[in-house]
Each structure stands twice: as C-alpha cells, then as structure tokens.
Amino acid sequence: MLKEIAQSGTQLQADQQRVMLEALRSLAGTVTSTDGPISLGLRSKLRWLPLRTTLGWTKQRPVYAVDHPAIARTLGDHLPVWQPGGGLQQFTGLLGVLKVHKLEASEAGVVAPDSARPDRQLTEDFRGAVCSLQDTLVRDEPDAAEAFMGWDWLMDLEVRVLPGLRIRMHPGEDHEVIEVPVDAHVDREAKALFVSIPEALRTTRGGGLAVASLFSAERAHVGHRWRDLWEEDWPQDAPVTPLVPSGQQDHEDRERLASQLRERELSRPSGPMVPAQPSSPVNPPAGIPSPSSMPAPPSIPVPPGAGSPPVPPTAEPRKLVSLGELQARTPQATRTASASQPRSAPSSRSRRAASLPQPRQGGAAPNERSGLLGYQDRDKEKTVLALLAEILSASGRTLEDQRGLQRLGADAVDSTGHFYEIKAHGGPEPADVSLTSAELTRALAEGSNYSLVIASNLEEGRGTPTLRIITDPLCFFEVESMADVKLKGVRDADADAAVWQWPDAGV
C-alpha cells in the first residue's frame, strides 16, 4: 500500500495521508506486539520500505527523524527527515526496523552560550512554572509525569536570554554539523534554559518544546500544558510542594542508594579481611541482651562425609520445629566478634529515611493466608519473631510485628525504636541474603539502630535452630547492587553478632 502511495509523489491528498497513517500505525502495532525477534523476511522488507521525507520518497537509508517541528523544518532542507504524517512518538517502535535514525533535540548544544545574559526574574518565573507543571501532570497526566525523572534538576536550571539563539545538531560522521535557529533550548552542559527573547519562555514553540524535549513520551501534551500554565494565573495557585510521581520517587531512592553505596565502597579499608578469631566478651549491640554469661553451645555432630545435617525425604512434608518445643528448650548464646575493622558508615547516614513510612503504633502484622505447603515463609518469620521477643524481654523490651506495613524496610521494631529485619531459613544459613531497596534505605539511615536477624535450621531434622543477630550489617558485608541488593559472604565473613541456639535436649 505504501509503495503505491509513494508513486503519487510527495504532495498527498487527504485520503492518501489517512491511508498512510493507518498503514504505519498498523505496522507499528504488528512490530511492537510480536513476541520475540522479528522474522528476517519481514525485517528485510521493512528495511527497504519507501518512506516519505522532506526530500521526497526514498528507499535509501539512513533517513532521519526529529520530534521537534522547528528543528525538523531546518534539518529537512539538508537531510531526508521522515514525514510519517503524524506525531513521531506513535511510531517509535518502527524506527529500528525501518533504519530511521532519531536525532534528539535535547542532546544539542547552544552556539556561543557565553554571550547569553542571565535573567533572575525569568529564572524565578520558570521555576514556579516547573513546580506547577509537575503538580499538574501528576494530577491530570500521569503518563506524562512518569516520562521524566529529573524534576529537581529541571527546577535548578537558570534562564538566559540569547538573541538569535541557535543550536548545533550532529547528524553523524558523514554529515557536517548543522546550526538550527530555535526559540528556546535546554543545554544540559550549561545547566541553563536559553531563550531568544523573554517572551519565548511562555510559548509552546519556545519554552514548551524545550521542556517537552526532555520527556520520553507525551511531548505534545507537555508542550501544551506548559503554554496553558502561562495563560492561567498560575502564580497565585502554584503549590508550595508539588506532588511527586511514583516513578520519580523510586528513581530518586535508587540514585541516593547508589551514591551511598559508592561512598561506602570508597570508605572500605584496604587489605584483605582477617578471618574471625575465637570470640571474647564484647559489648552487645544496642537492644540485644548480652550473651556473655550464657554457656557456649555444644557442637553439632555431623556424620562422616556429610557437609550438613541430612534433609528429610522429599516424600514427607517438611515441617517447622514447633514454637512450643523451641520455647521449652533452654537457649544457649555466644558472641562472635569481627577481627577486621568494620567499614565506616557513609556521611549521609545521619539523614533519616524520609521516603519510608514510620512504624505503626501497636504493630502491623500481615494478613494470614493458608497454603498447600506444610508451612509458609510467614510461619518461619512468626517463629523468629516469638523467639526474638523472648530474647528482648530479658532486657525489658517489647517487640512489635510490622510486617504488614509496606516499604518500612524492617519486619519489627522494639519498644526503644530499634529496627529488625528477619531472614528466616528452614535449612543452613545461606552464603548471601537479599535486601529490598526499602530495607537497604532503612539500614543506611538507621546504622547501629538496625539489626539483621538471620534464622537457620528452622525445619525439623535440619540441625540446631539458630538466630544470628547482626547490628549495622552494612559495616561487615560486601554489597552487590541488583534490582534488589545482595549482601555477599554472610555465612563466611566475620561480623559482630549475637548468636542464639536452641539445641535439642538430647544432643
């Protein structure tokens, strides 16, 4: 169909433009909905599909695309710029298979930026408008609000007036740099918004396109919203604190955590870690009763040639050691001390975890659900919480279950405000444990007011049920950043910890 329309020349009738649009939209839907890679046959056909450009129909590549009308017009005099007949963003999925090279206006630099004049009043007006735009998009255009993650950065830009404003576009190695006149442009390197005249800040063609070019989607909506803000009496209704998109909040949390982890790695002491030596009495972490007066636990006999206690036959249901049986046993406690110097805490640790909720008064236990297995993960956690509560009660502290409160970054909080994150295991303690971003944020913010409780051998027949309580765990373990965060070497690395065991009376 497009081949037939291409034979009509560049001046298309209205019905031909409609057919071309519908054909391209159908093609884009087919490409984006295809599971897996596109077949070689279809890819080969699309590569030589005739495209309507500013220099006429062509099968040759490369063809360029720009999601900025003013820039597209100027570049179109020098390069074949694609003219699909509608907004470019609806055809983003076709760019790769059609071999269309997209040029981003936001990546261009301003010509002679040092000749610009900073304008304090325009800068203040711009920041107020950005605040209102953010709030408006979060409330009314959520898709647009999630298409940009740099609101704080945008708010800090300075507005500068540069008559005859021009930017440099780089089509590629085979083409010279092209200078394009524009009404407004955000220069990332200069950290400024340049305008050709003060009035350009308020228009869709000026400030609207400049701001919208920073968004990954919904650019037309953003540009029009920008113009509407200036036409309304927005300064009187501007929010003091705009609503923040959820994606922006998550992005800021990840950036902050990444910065704190980098700082932590830089503060790591040089030299290899020293293996842990036999422990001696040391001061216990805050909130954990001292185990120094408790007898050392007996060693657990292991059959020759076996690396760990045997696992029950898979044909039998795996069950947890009952809480009543554990509470009837006499717990034994020891203290392990790290022989190496703990990593120093990041300087930003003193900041509270502002993005996390506060513990709920009276606790927040999760909803209980039955399952097909003999037990659930929450059953293990409940057992650990009960044992931990008994340990803390020796020092007059109570424990509240907070597992039902999302994004707290901890499973429980005691009566002094100390946070506990539980990692419960039916078998032996694993080599690594994972922390969610909320748990990492809480651990970084609380420092010595945060303990990691690693429970092991909670299933029947797996060994001696054990709790290892490690205060300020980020000081002792290597951190591997993934979607969540992994603490590596938990089982093998030495760390200051209180270790509580509930051996069978017959052992």
Overall structural class, as computed from helix and strand content, comes to alpha+beta
Strands in their spatial order, largest beta sheet: 12-21-18-17-15-14-13
How much strand content do the residues show? Answer: 15-25%
Oligomer: single chain
User: What is the helix tally?
Assistant: 14
- How far from one another are the termini? 82 Å
The overall pLDDT average reads 80
- From the spread of the alpha carbons, the general shape counts as elongated
Q: Please count the beta strands (DSSP E, at least 2 residues each).
A: 21
Helical fraction: 25-40%
In the predicted model, the low-confidence regions spanning at least 5 consecutive residues are 271-284, 292-303, 347-352
Major beta-sheet overview: 7 strands, mixed
* Radius of gyration, taken over Cα atoms and rounded to an integer in Å: 31 Å
Provide an overview of this structure.
By secondary structure, the protein is α+β, with helices and mostly antiparallel strands. The chain is 30% helix and 17% strand. The protein has 14 helices and 21 strands. The protein has helices spanning 2-6, 14-33, 40-47, 69-75, 120-140, 142-145, 151-155, 204-212, 219-231, 234-237, 246-266, 323-328, 377-393, 437-446; strands spanning 51-53, 56-58, 63-66, 100-103, 109-110, 117-118, 158-161, 166-169, 178-181, 184-187, 192-195, 332-336, 399-401, 412-414, 419-424, 433-435, 450-456, 466-471, 478-481, 485-488, 497-501. The strands form 6 sheets. A 7-stranded mixed β-sheet has the order 12-21-18-17-15-14-13. Strands 6-7-11-10 form a 4-stranded mixed β-sheet. A hairpin with a 4-residue loop joins strand 14 (412-414) and strand 15. Helix 8 crosses helix 9 (219-231). The longest helix has 21 residues, at 120-140. It is elongated. Mean pLDDT is 80; it is low at 271-284, 292-303 and 347-352.
